[in-house]
Design brief:
Elements (H helix, E strand, L loop, with lengths): L2 H17 L3 H17 L4 H15 L10 H20 L4 H10 L4 E6 L6 H14 L4 E6 L6 H11 L3 E3 L7 H14 L4 E6 L6 H15 L3 E7 L4 H13 L4 E5 L8 H10 L3 E5 L7 E3 L2 H8 L2
Parallel strand pairs: 1-4, 1-5, 2-3, 2-4, 5-6, 6-7
Antiparallel strand pairs: 7-8
Helix pairs in contact: 1-2, 1-4, 2-3, 3-4, 4-11, 4-12, 6-7, 8-9, 10-11
The chain binds guanosine-5'-triphosphate and magnesium ion.
The site of magnesium ion (MG) has 5 residues, from α6.
Length: 301
């Protein structure tokens, strides 16, 4: 995973190592670094901001002979990224669910994202994880638009022995969500996961529909699902959803096939929202907790 991004980090470190810190040499190394960030799917604005931050933090720095300049650059890079990830914070969603469950109220999670990013699969994976943690789960088939969407979620649910709340195609997804909440309350279910559509006639329709579900259902948590392989598109989608609907955290899918890895950095940087999990395959167990520290550590290893 993320080999390209790791390469970008190690190449700036070695460029600096060979030539010592400072002046045009550093400028060139930073410029090359910026290009490789962009090539690793870090959004251009983010790559620029990050490079400028590192450059600023290196200004006037004198490196002792005994100190490896590459290490200094590495530290600065990590510090800038750590600051961005720290600002986004982290969420212990299991703890939040547990707390609400104790109060006897279902914790409602809405899954959002453009078509094909992996929402429905992620709902199933997340349900599987919740079951393993000992929570009761119900799903709501909020994608009433795409033919086959309700059956797709129901098939996953059958395999995981879960109940799906659904209506017919064309029904109002907000009403499906509300049914889900009523069901979860009546049956004392700990957590309701609402799947949604990823495509409508226009993105504006989609945003309006998602906003309506939010108004009606008042979810406790909104998860934006992005396909890591779509790189810069994932970042524009994150901005779109963040501005028009709002979300509380992200899951990046298909990280198993992603050699670039920039999407995580960009989404956190641009939206200020944390990444909670990575999708790392098509199986139900292929959902890995995202650990910002480990992620940054592995980039600079
Ligand atoms: N390799 C890999 N494939 C994944 C991952 N997550 C989802 N997929 C695959 O991506 C494809 C699309 O997933 P869906 O869950 O149907 O995506 P969706 O967002 O619900 O799509 P729409 O319902 O059309 O909006 C499926 O073939 C999934 O198996 C992942 O983490 N890794
Ligand atoms: Mg779907």
């Amino acid at each position: 995973m993320f080999d390209r991004l790791k390469q970008a980090f190690s190449s700036i470190a070695s460029a600096v190592k060979e030539k010592q810190l400072g002046g045009q040499v550093l400028d060139k190394a930073l410029f090359d670094f910026q290009i490789s960030l962009i090539e690793s799917d870090v959004a251009q604005t983010v790559a620029e901001a990050l490079t400028a931050e590192v450059q600023k933090s290196l200004e006037g720095i004198k490196v002792e002979r005994s100190v490896d300049p590459a290490e200094v650059v590495g530290e600065r890079l990590t510090a800038s990224l750590e600051a961005a990830f720290a600002k986004a914070g982290s969420v212990d969603i299991m703890a939040n669910i547990r707390e609400k469950a104790k109060a006897g109220d279902p914790y409602v999670i809405l899954f959002l994202g453009i078509n094909g990013t992996g929402k429905t699969t992620t709902v199933a994976k997340f349900a599987n994880l919740l079951k393993k943690e000992g929570f009761s789960v119900v799903c709501a088939a909020g994608d009433t638009h795409r033919p086959g969407a309700i059956e797709q979620l129901s098939e996953h649910a059958d395999r995981l022995s879960l109940k799906v709340v659904s209506q017919r195609y064309g029904a109002d997804p907000a009403a499906v969500g509300r049914d889900g909440v009523l069901y979860a309350k009546a049956h004392h279910v700990d957590c309701l996961l609402i799947d949604t559509a990823g495509r409508m006639q226009t993105n504006q329709n989609l945003m309006e529909e998602m906003s309506k579900i939010c108004r009606v259902v008042k979810p406790d948590f909104r998860i934006f699902v992005a396909d890591a392989l779509t790189g810069n598109d994932a970042v524009s989608q994150a901005q779109l959803f963040n501005q028009h609907v709002g979300f509380d955290g992200a899951i990046l899918t298909k990280a198993d096939a992603d050699v670039r890895g920039g999407a995580a950095i960009s989404i956190v940087y641009v939206t200020g929202k944390p990444v909670l999990f990575l999708g790392v395959g098509q199986g139900y167990d292929d959902l890995a907790q995202f650990n910002a520290k480990a992620f940054l550590g592995s980039l600079l290893a």
